Amino acid sequence: MEYRRFGSTDLETSVIGFGTFELNGEYGAIDDDEVVRAIYRGLDLGVTCIDCAPIYGFGHAEEVVGKALGPRRKDVMLLTKCGIRWAEGGRRVWDGSRASILKEIDESLARLRTDYVDLYLVHYPPSRLGAPLEETIGALEEIRQAGKARYIGVSNYELDDLQASAALAPIAANQVVYNLFDRRNQTGIRWAQEHGVGVMTHGSLSSGLLAGAFTPETVFAENDWRRHGNVRGLPLMVGENFARNLAVVEKLKEVARSLGVTQAQLAVNWVLSQPGVTVALTGCRNVREIEENVGAAGWTLSAEDQARIEAIMQEAASTAEGP
Question: Most CB atoms closer than 10 Å: which of 42, 185, 233, 234?
Fold first, then answer.
């Protein structure tokens, strides 16, 4: 396993992060016991980063992680988020107010069975959370100074809001979508690298598209949001786009085979090879997936391999700021 520091801080992480987004119940059936076994296997393989959020399953992801870690809490860089809570009936409530955030951290710590997190992020920018940026970031800083979080950061922040946040408090990280199909956050990643802010990427496999397991006959379950084909604002799996992008993935598989790695490992390694990226978060529902994801670390794409990949991506449909 490789390890990197978040920007100018002393916070260190494995380059592969264990994401728990899939415990939100929107990816079909997930076996909690399988996830726990995957967490244990990840720890054994050197994965030290575990990413949660209270909105993932309305507290369920945090509860599963808290139950799994037990005495091994000290072995991980544990992070969670704030800014989205829920009301009766499962209705999401977007709230970046100080009062809500100070309440959220205590509830998250209880579910995670710990008295602090290593990194605490606000889940979305102020335009989504209905509170001034100064109030939201001020609440995070209160939490940091109280010792409930070692470091604070933001998530899904575009450059302007990231810069404004960094002027208000010591922002250690920004968590953004980034993968071969979706490069909308390249500018923010470059700025973060230049200003000592770590970058966590999520969506490394483009919601499974880059994992290499889909075919033109793939049918998603009724409770799987991917059945609609829109991947974080990009119609990557809609109609002809899906067929075209599956053909791109098949060509990427040829590159992966020539390197002796899997398609998923190639896609994650590409993310890790981009300047400014600290850790790539990957969804891990079972032991097989975490073992495969860990295999994305420890090797380097050559300039020739990078060029082959970029040439293939020229054929993709509905990408954002690609080659």
Answer: 42
Question: Cα(235)–Cα(231) distance, rounded to whole angstroms?
Answer: 6
218-226's contacts with Cβ under 8 Å and 24+ in sequence apart are 220/28, 221/28, 221/29, 223/25, 223/26, 223/28, 224/26, 224/27, 224/28, 225/26, 225/27, 226/27
Report residue 184: phi and psi, to 5°: -65, -20
pTM of the entire predicted model: 0.89
Q: H/E element holding 202? A: strand 198-202
Tell me the pLDDT tens digit for each residue of 230-267: 677 787 777 788 888 889 999 999 999 999 999 999 99
Computed on alpha carbons and rounded to an integer, the radius of gyration of the chain in Å comes to 19
SS (H, E, C) 78-126: EEEEECEEEECCCEEEECCCHHHHHHHHHHHHHHHCCCCEEEEEECCCH
Q: How far apart are CA 229 and CA 240, in angstroms?
A: 11
Cβ(22)–Cβ(30) below 8 Å: yes
Please give the angle made by the CA atoms of 125, 130 and 131, to the nearest 5 degrees. 80
On the CB side of 308, CA atoms within 13 Å amount to 16
Q: Which residues are catalytic?
A: 56
Q: Would you say 51 and 281 are in contact if contact means Cβ atoms under 8 Å apart?
A: yes
Model confidence at 323, pLDDT cuts 50, 70, 90, reads: very low
Give the model's pLDDT for residue 225.
61
**Side-chain half-sphere CA neighbours of 323 within 13 A:** 12
Among the listed residues 186, 224, 207, 190, the one whose alpha carbon sits nearest the alpha carbon of residue 264: 207
User: pLDDT for 20-42, tens place per residue?
Assistant: 887 766 555 678 888 899 999 99
Is there a contact between 61 and 33 (Cβ–Cβ < 8 Å)?
A: no
- pLDDT per residue over 190-211, tens digit each? 999 999 999 999 988 887 888 8
Mean pLDDT of 36-61: 92
